[in-house]
Design goal:
Strand order of the largest sheet: 6-7-8-3-9-10
Distance between the termini: 68 Å
CATH topology of the largest domain: ABC transporter transmembrane region fold
Number of helices: 17
Structural class: alpha/beta
Radius of gyration: 34 Å
Number of domains: 2
CATH superfamily of the largest domain: ABC transporter type 1, transmembrane domain
Shape: elongated
Helix content: 55-70%
CATH architecture of the largest domain: Up-down Bundle
Strand content: 5-15%
CATH class of the largest domain: Mainly Alpha
Length: 563
Amino acid sequence: MSAVDPRLLRQAGAARAYLAVTVALGLAGAVLIVLQAGLLARLLAGAGRGTGVAALAGTLGWLAVVLAGRALAASGGEAAALRAAAVVKSRLRRRLSERALALGPQWLTGQRTGEITTLATKGLDGLDPYFARYLPQLVLAVAVPVAVLARVAAADWISAVIIVVTLPLIPLFAALIGWHTQAQTRKQWLLLGRLGGHFLDVVAGLPTLKLFGRAKAQADVIADVTNRHRAATMATLRVAFLSALVLEITAAVATALVAVEIGLRLLAGHVGYETALLVLLLTPEAFLPLRNAGAQFHASTEGTAAARRAFEILDTPPPAGQGVPAPGAPAGADASREDIVLDGVTVAYPGRSRPALDDVSLTIRPGEFIVVTGASGAGKSSLLAVLLRFATPVSGTVSVGGSDLARIPADGWRRQIAWVPQQPHLFTTTVAGNIALGEPSARREDIVTAARLAGADEFIQRLDRGYDTALTEGGRTLSAGQRQKIALARAFLCRPPVLLLDEPTAHLDQASARHLLSVIQSGEVRRTVVLVTHGPLPPAAGGTRVVTLDQGRLVSHNTAVLA
């Protein structure tokens, strides 16, 4: 068990100023604790000797200043630590999103996307207690005992020795309990991630589950995972409460030892009244930061458990060819002027008996319209995945203008591609905002033009507020065909040189499909188009080059009218 996760601190580089302020205010708080005890001891000793209020007014004033200073230091330190937590969470979420994109859909298919969503939201939010309370308390747990021991040793060395001997018991018991707490918290987090992931998947597929009468069965699964998460949470809380009890008892016994010995020596006249008061006031302060650090450790374990899972994802190496290009790699390639050449490309996925693509060779020329056909599982989507750099060939090469695509930066290459998947996603914003997703500064007239090219303008105009109509997440208020048209409009608006369409006519009627194909062939789109379909297209696709795949192999390609 490590008190501080060095990986989290490395992520806090951008928040170094906030953490420095937190540490500085923690050290100031340690000094103020010693000053407060000294002033309070002097005040009580003076009152015990019968000193008048007027004579003690100065001490009272300074005590009020010190108390105000402690309050300001504590609140300021927590505020700075919360800002540090916000910076670290933002950086981790950004890096997590970038790594998920770099790993690609092939990696995501083996993950529970709902679990990753829970990790990036609720999970990383658990870092607030770590940065806002646990780390500042660690600073106090070091600074305050040192300051207290120095002051007590100067006043009474015997009491200082007793504190030095008993003080290590607090971190010792905290560490022993902490090991058990980490295991419980890790189990709790895994169940929470599973619950969140399964719940999100069920909500997304609820219409299908209702249609096939499986909603009740999934509700039972969610109830079972919820009960297990509840049991794990209660077990974690029991350990946390037990930890607090053990630490309180240990600190109370240690404080009592000092109180007994200082009391006996006070009665014997071996120590002064003010000195005895000072020792009694400072002794609990020596143990308090360590007890609080132990308590805050338990409050922060959920966030650190989530952070460990985030680091596991961040440490996952991207597929070959997805990482940083080798030295001397080309800066990019111009797909608007150069051929895209697949030479003997083979793609294989783990757990499958045959390759998704098997020795496929194909040349895609600038401005060409290619239709890729074949039955389900023939390798059509895998071909698009290769062009998108989502899948890496196990053999063969893909080149653009003679440059190996694997050596071209993935981000720069993908900026030259517009991709419309089989199930495009719409976001919680307006229709215009969804169309302009890749071009946020696009003018309204350009958005309307793109919608007309996609055949979407007519139904958009019939919506309550037209292009300003707000959509729900996923665009569930629209039909599948309407969502497809908005996604096509989005692709037409951003104008990259290559357009990849995966079953774009699957949810369109005959007239809409014919309109889409005529727009592509008319030259209005002005780009290289690769369209994947498993069924026949309307006659408007005449003159198009047709590529047929069968069980991953390219069996024919020709120019023909598709019926």
